[in-house]
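Annex B.
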Amino acid sequence: MASFRYKTFGYAAPSAGARLQPFSFERRALRPNDVAMEILYAGVCHSDLHWARNDWGWSNYPVVPGHEIVGRVIAVGPEVTRFKAGDHVAVGCMADSCQHCDQCRKGEEQLCREGNTMTYGGLDRITQEMTHGGYSKHVVVRQEFVLRVPDGLDLSRAAPLLCAGITTYSPLRTWGIGPGSRVGVIGLGGLGHMAVKLAAGLGAQVTVMSRTPDKKADALALGADRLLVSTDLDAMAQAANGFDLIIDTVPNKHDLNPYLPLLDVDGTLVIVGQVGPLDEMSSVPLLLGRRRVAGSPIGGIAQTQELLDFCARKNILPETETIRMDEINEAFERMERSDVRYRFVIDMASLTEPAEATL
Ligand SMILES: [Zn+2]
Ligand SMILES: [Zn+2]
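Hydroxyacid dehydrogenase: predicted structure tokens.
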């Protein structure tokens, strides 16, 4: 059963400036510890757009994006013990890691000393083939990087937990957020809305920070206790020293200086959105308040499973808009205009086999 390669199909960006279009390709033959799954839903992350357009300068083409994957197991290799055909499963941003370094042994595969293998745009550790992501009908991943979707979690909405969810849950756990913690969230997009829901789910007091009061009703509806308008200098002064953790989800270059005085002693502002330069920062509020600025990527596999179980238990789900696969280019354009509340999810039932390979 394990000797053939899976013919599959999806959508790919053929080059940096091009629209995504139908693409036929193969998945690797099952290795003994591999799980093959049919993809049911794929979330649309900002990284997908950046990668498809080579915004970070690292992309290789064709790019099949997608690292928020929910599916159903269709076959397993002979050594797979954790999954069987029919199970509902998920795959996030990583598809492999070295499995033997200190970080991997601690369950922090995202910090693997040899670099983790990204679900798309990475290189398979054995064949050196480029990995392709979830904008496709099938995927093959080793069982150590496959997550179980708990019963009761809505499959059609769960996909964004695999990137937006774990990216915001991991810092909440790293900094020990729980009942009574004071958490700020800057930015109310795909990441920010999950940060609000998850922090509230952990029992924290949650404040959304925004330049205008426009998002107050949305913030409260998502579970925040209040909205702090960052351009209101009086309100900002009154909020000084009031936060244990601020999760900064803003995806572009911005100024941290207004937010640093909001942190209490030993408080941390953690950056999870912007990949690249920030505006110049003053060390004064850091020194005087023993405050910290940190970064955090996704979380490890065990923590991602913990997140899925937590969300099933608490009935926490991303706010999503379901689209068809052939609406992806329009979805990218809308995402660039921040015209999405709060995450697009592709229903893979809408993806049909192309008459001929177009790439
Ligand atoms: Zn992502
Ligand atoms: Zn490792």
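The chain has ten helices and 17 strands. The pocket of zinc ion (ligand 2) is lined by residues 97-98, 101, 103-104, 112-114 (CB under 6 Å). Further annotation is deferred to the next reporting cycle.
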